[in-house]
Amino acid sequence: MTEDSKRLLVLFEVRFRELLTLCDQQKQKIQELEKALEMKNTELEKAFEDIKDLNAKCDNMLTAHVLSVQEGEVRNAKLRLSKLVREVDKCIALLNE
User: Fold this and answer.
1) What start-end ranges are recorded for coiled-coil regions in this protein (predicted)?
2) What average pLDDT does the segment 1-12 reach?
3) Can you give the pLDDT at residue 59?
4) Fewest C-beta in 10 Å: which of 11, 37, 42, 71?
5) Nearest to residue 50, comparing CAs of 5, 93, 3?
6) What is the dihedral of CA 14, 18, 21, 26, to 10 degrees?
7) Residues 23-63 pLDDT 10s
8) Are 47 and 91 in contact (CB under 8 A)?
9) Is 27 helix (H, G, I), strand (E, B) or coil?
10) Long-range contacts of 90-95 (CB under 8 A, 24+ apart)
11) CA pair distance 51, 78, nearest whole angstrom
């Protein structure tokens, strides 16, 4: 083997090791990102469940109040409904993050 061939072989080995190291780093980063994605998906599912629960509560409250509405209770019902809508909007805003 000539001196150039030896030098090229050593350079190839160094570059190959660097490539393997970079590959390992990328695999680790992918694993971290997959974990983060899984956590976000779990948070998203929980937020959707919260929205479902809030919508169900809102529907139940509306039904209950419609059945027992008196003139003085209409304003209170609107205020409570507005509060529930704001809570749903907050949940939606969290989902959009």
Assistant:
1) 16-87
2) 89
3) 86
4) 71
5) 93
6) -160
7) 999 999 999 999 999 999 999 999 999 999 999 988 888 87
8) yes
9) helix
10) 91/47, 91/50, 91/51, 91/54, 92/51, 94/47, 95/44, 95/47, 95/48, 95/51
11) 19
Dihedral, CA atoms, 55, 61, 66, 67, nearest 10 degrees? 130
Rounded Cα distance between 92 and 97, Å, is 9
Indicate whether 1 pLDDT > 60.
yes
* CA distances (Å), origin 23, targets 16, 27, 63: 10, 6, 59
Radius of gyration of the chain (CA): 30
Residue 73: which pLDDT band, with cuts at 50, 70 and 90?
Answer: low
Tokens 């507005």: give the residue: 82
81, 89, 48, 87: which is closest to 65 by C-alpha?
81
